[in-house]
Amino acid sequence: MRFGQFAGLDFTGASLYVAAYLSVGFLFSDALGTITKNYAMFSRALSSVSIAAALGYLGFKAWIWIKADRVRGSKRLELTRLSARSSLPAGV
Asked: What is the pLDDT along the chain (92 residues), one digit of tens a residue?
């Protein structure tokens, strides 16, 4: 195939692709707006759910920490009370 024939056919094929993509884009441009609007709505919803999940997790961890501290705090004895109960001197 000669170069001139190849270049002409290549240009014709590229022109057909460009025309096809432009016409499909023009026909479905309204659908693209709807799709991007739905993506934006989904993104906001997913962000809200993610933030709520993170805050819930942090609240749960704080509740567990406070609950565990209360349990540990109730089993603690002060050193002076402990030494008063035992026969050991207070400095030991």
From this structure: 899 999 999 999 999 999 999 999 888 888 878 888 999 999 999 999 999 999 999 999 999 988 887 766 555 556 666 666 666 555 55
Q: How far apart are CA 1 and CA 78, in angstroms?
A: 99
The model carries a pTM of 0.47
Report the alpha-carbon distance of residue 56 to residue 14 in Å, rounded: 55
CB atoms within 10 A of CB 70: 9
- The domain locations on the chain are 3-85
In degrees and rounded to multiples of 5, residue 91 shows phi and psi of: -75, -15
